[in-house]
């Protein structure tokens, strides 16, 4: 083998190692992000959390994931993508340690420890968002869109696997292994990140271009995109974080059966992303973008009709399909609209998502004493319907660039 061939083989091996690290990291990261929702039975039944307490545990997630997302751009420039990735993985690992500690300490300490855990979970998710979405594009510059779709599909698998693993361990009365395994996996990936050769960030030129013109902070369309991400996340956060409790209390599922319902939601979301990505190659993106929240609203309004257990499981799979690609498509449309400020716009839209994902379950907790979860889920249809209105206004606004 010639020296050039050996060099080429080495480069391919390095690229593969980096890709394995990033995609495995995306899988494990999303398992950790759903850990608290997947552990709802433990929090509600073993720790006796009230509706208000359960809904409020996601408030620290709102704050720290938002701060992490907003500060990710500046931190990436100072620390680099690798260090930002490691920081996020360590935060996720410590969040699992807090979750485990909550069941091993007196009840008076359980609630504060869970608050710390969800806060660290939010920080980890916010800080890893930039490197996780940047590295696939850097590693596969000729197939950036496919690389990102693959990452989001793998992340969806992690969101699906988390509830299933938690349910299986809970059924065998060894649930403490759940946070132990997730914490160890995140620490292992953080350690691997120190050894694996990761590519350098090539986005400096784009950031220099962004500083040449002011960011679109005064543009109404920009804030419409942020608000759409927030409203969408209110619905998704409400669906995902209250799914287990809804299926247990309103539909009479066992703990393992309720976890299956949550897993079906994340499975539908993953499958939907792949389907929409395939359709977007052949069809204009924006009609798909606005069709998804309409489907979401219709499915939420159908919640009172799904009274049987098979119907309830099918409902959550359908909700996953409806939720699937709206947020990625929102990022895509906004990036096209504000092409000079893609990194800043993306981070701010992610911040809107983070706020909504945390606020959704909290609002459900506040409203829970005033109505059943069946009714509250149906009323949540107002969120995606508002997204349709905002999206329509954005499309009609001056200077809009069609897809």
Offer a few descriptive terms:
single chain, 403 residues, mainly alpha, disordered N terminus
What would you say about this model in short?
With 403 residues, the chain is mostly helical. The protein has helices at 3-33, 35-38, 40-46, 51-56, 59-79, 81-104, 107-139, 144-171, 177-195, 204-212, 220-249, 255-282, 285-301, 309-323, 326-337, 342-367, 373-379, 382-396. The radius of gyration is 21 Å and the shape is globular.
Mass-distribution shape: globular
Q: Helix count, per DSSP?
A: 18
Query: What radius of gyration results from the CA coordinates?
Result: 21 Å
What summary fits the major beta sheet? Answer: none
> Oligomer, anyone?
single chain
Could you spell the SSE succession in H and E letters?
A: HHHHHHHHHHHHHHHHHH
Q: Count all strands and give the number.
A: 0
Low-pLDDT runs of 5+ residues are 1-8
Helix content: over 70%
Q: Mean pLDDT across all residues, rounded?
A: 84
**Computed structural class:** mainly alpha
Distance between the ends: 48 Å
Strand content: under 5%
């Amino acid at each position: 083998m010639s020296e050039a061939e050996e060099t080429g083989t080495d480069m391919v091996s390095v690229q593969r190692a980096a890709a394995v690290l990033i995609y495995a990291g995306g899988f494990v990261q999303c398992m950790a992000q759903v850990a608290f929702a997947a552990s709802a039975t433990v929090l509600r039944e073993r720790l006796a959390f009230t509706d208000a307490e359960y809904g409020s545990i996601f408030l620290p997630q709102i704050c720290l994931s938002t701060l992490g997302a907003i500060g990710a751009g500046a931190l990436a420039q100072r620390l680099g993508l690798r260090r930002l990735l490691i920081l996020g993985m360590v935060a996720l690992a410590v969040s699992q340690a807090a979750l485990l500690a909550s069941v091993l300490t007196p009840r008076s300490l359980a609630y504060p420890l869970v608050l710390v855990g969800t806060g660290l979970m939010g920080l980890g998710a916010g800080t890893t968002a930039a490197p996780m979405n940047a590295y696939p594009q850097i590693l596969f510059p000729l197939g950036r869109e496919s690389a990102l779709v693959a990452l989001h599909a793998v992340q969806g698998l992690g969101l699906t696997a988390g509830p299933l693993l938690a349910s299986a361990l809970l059924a065998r009365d060894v649930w403490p292994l759940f946070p132990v395994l997730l914490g160890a996996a995140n620490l292992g990936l953080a350690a691997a990140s120190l050894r694996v050769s990761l590519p350098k960030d090539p986005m400096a030129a784009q950031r220099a271009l962004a500083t040449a013109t002011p960011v679109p902070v005064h543009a109404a369309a920009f804030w419409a995109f942020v608000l759409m991400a927030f409203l969408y996340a209110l619905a998704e956060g409400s669906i995902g974080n209250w799914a287990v409790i809804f299926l247990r209390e309103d539909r009479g599922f066992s703990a393992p059966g309720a976890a299956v319902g949550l897993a079906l939601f994340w499975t539908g979301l993953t499958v939907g992303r792949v389907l929409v990505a395939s359709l977007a190659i052949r069809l204009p993106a924006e009609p798909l973008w606005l069709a998804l929240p309409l489907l979401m609203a219709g499915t939420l309004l159908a919640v009172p009709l799904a009274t049987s257990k098979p119907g309830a499981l099918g409902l959550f799979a359908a909700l996953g399909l409806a939720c699937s690609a709206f947020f990625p498509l929102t990022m895509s449309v906004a990036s096209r609209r504000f092409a000079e400020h893609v990194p800043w716009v993306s981070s701010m839209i992610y911040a809107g998502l983070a706020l909504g994902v945390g606020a959704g379950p909290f609002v459900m907790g506040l409203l829970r004493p005033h109505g059943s979860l069946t009714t509250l889920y149906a009323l949540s249809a107002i969120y995606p319907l508002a997204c349709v209105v905002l999206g329509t206004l954005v499309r009609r606004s001056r200077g809009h660039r069609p897809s």
